[in-house]
């Protein structure tokens, strides 16, 4: 990769070979740009998680087959490229969410059936990762959980933060 | 970004490289300064049976209770934790099996209850059912789940609040569930 720039024909090298330095700099920039893109995706959801001391931190190999359910502080469900309003008990968003989660449940049941696993006995192996903002009301959370259960999901992970976010 | 094929003096080439290097360092400095690594998240694992399986389990359990009343077997005991919400969704009251307690004492009270159940019947206290006022904020619910985890209870059910409480959508304080 690195090229040597020689000045003149007498074998006298230039003062400093900057090419490897530039290579490293570009790699660092790529690293930061990629990390920023990921962080932006999380921040876009604007979900401030509640703090919990006894919750566990998962290592990479423990992260299971999962689907995400995110509810922000306004009571809006974010995910599947949608923004559904769940803040009112009769909101249209609930109907949409019901349809979506049932569809997702059916897909998971079919996939489990294809693998020869009886979901009726063992439940669905997919975990629902629930990220709910700390300001969301209990009623919204409970209905989300009930709808997921009605769709056949039985494994849940409730996300919490390690320390209070600003 | 194409490079000139014409011959350049070493000074010209060096000056072009210097400006590019300046730019790269500026970009790098920007990213280093604005870099905010994502914080690790924690989680509570909760396994709940789907409604149809839960119904079957309840049927089987009641059938067993009818047919084998004296059989000694380890039955999963559970407790009910009722949470009342204050005017702004804060945690106003905690009732453990109908008994009013302080929120900070929940974990120790759960451990005491587990000990009492274990000592009396040999059963394990492994499940809790949380009944909360609809307006209660999620952060307080997580605090209660946290207390349950500390007491070794990892099977947690979320029940619907009594209808009298569910109707109170006026934003006022909810009375604690009975």
Automatic annotation (TrEMBL), chain A:
GO molecular function, one term: transmembrane transporter activity
Keyword Cell inner membrane: no
Main location: membrane
InterPro entries given in the database record: ExbD
A family per Pfam: ExbD
A single GO cellular-component term on record: plasma membrane
Record flagged with keyword Membrane: yes
GO terms (BP aspect): protein transport
Membrane topology: Single-pass membrane protein; Single-pass type II membrane protein
Keywords attached to this entry: Cell membrane, Membrane, Protein transport, Transmembrane, Transmembrane helix, Transport
Subcellular location field: Cell membrane
Protein family membership: Belongs to the ExbD/TolR family.
Name of the protein this chain belongs to: Biopolymer transport protein ExbD
From TrEMBL, chain B:
One Pfam match: ExbD
Membrane topology, record value: Single-pass membrane protein; Single-pass type II membrane protein
Domain of life: Bacteria
Any one Gene Ontology BP term: protein transport
Organism: Kolteria novifilia
PANTHER family, sorted: BIOPOLYMER TRANSPORT PROTEIN EXBD-RELATED, EXBD MEMBRANE COMPONENT OF PMF-DRIVEN MACROMOLECULE IMPORT SYSTEM
Main subcellular location of this protein, as a coarse class: membrane
Phylogenetic classification of the source organism: Bacteria, Pseudomonadati, Planctomycetota, Planctomycetia, Kolteriales
GO molecular function terms listed in the Swiss-Prot or TrEMBL record: transmembrane transporter activity
Keyword tRNA processing attributed: no
Record's compositionally biased regions (Basic and acidic residues): 54-67
Protein name per its UniProtKB record: Biopolymer transport protein ExbD/TolR
Keyword list, A-Z: Cell membrane, Membrane, Protein transport, Transmembrane, Transmembrane helix, Transport
Intracellular or extracellular location(s): Cell membrane
Coiled coil: none
GO cellular component, one term: plasma membrane
UniProt region (Disordered), positions on chain: 42-70
Similarity comment text for this entry: Belongs to the ExbD/TolR family.
InterPro entries: ExbD
